Amino acid sequence: MTTYRLHCFPESGNSYKLALMLALCGQDVELIWTDFGGGVTRTAAWRESVNEMGEIPVLEEDGLRLTQTAPILLRLAKRHGRFGGADESQHFEILRWLFWDNHKLTSYMATYRFQRAFTPSPEPAVLDFLRGRIDGCLAILERHLQGLPFAIGDKPTVADISMLGYLCFPAEESGYDLAASHPAVSAWIDRMAALPGWRAPYDLLPGKRLHRHR
Length: 214
Ligand SMILES: N[C@@H](CCC(=O)N[C@@H](CS)C(=O)NCC(=O)O)C(=O)O
Known about the structure:
The protein is an alpha+beta fold. 54% of the residues lie in helices and 8% in strands. The radius of gyration is 17 Å and the shape is globular. The mean pLDDT is 98.
């Protein structure tokens, strides 16, 4: 049995992706709260000893340190035989949505939410720009999920877990009431939340919280 340790912090949707995947696979994980707000991931010592990319999350598997949620999710799917694709074409679809999520949806949403809720004086023009990009991403996802129950078909995969990462946090933080603005996305979140073992981000990732400015 693999021993998992996750370097994380509660507000991190990227950490939530891995914690949720492990929970849905019935795996125990030791959480290592990391002082992201205090700047520890920017220190040379942390980058030398934990992650040269300066990012959270880091997943330790029996002491082996892994980073980047997309390949980690794929690796966990393979090991635990859950949330992977059934064949080559499904695997391609999973990769397609994982790349899109990392480049677009998560990237813009994480930056926007951090600026909006956890930064003392965010620049309004920056917020406007990021919100425009997220609106575009959510419109794409909304349209896609009007035709499918899950990202690549009738079963949930790591593509869903990845795209969900930043969409389950409170609307006061994200600035999006998805039930009102994006009903297909909201219904998809409800389907994901009905999976056995699902838990909300702040239930799964306890620990000292960042100061919220709004
Ligand atoms: N693509 C990375 C993104 C990780 C990431 O951006 N994590 C945030 C915290 S949730 C971070 O450490 N940001 C630091 C930075 O961008 O400098 C992944 O999937 O693991």
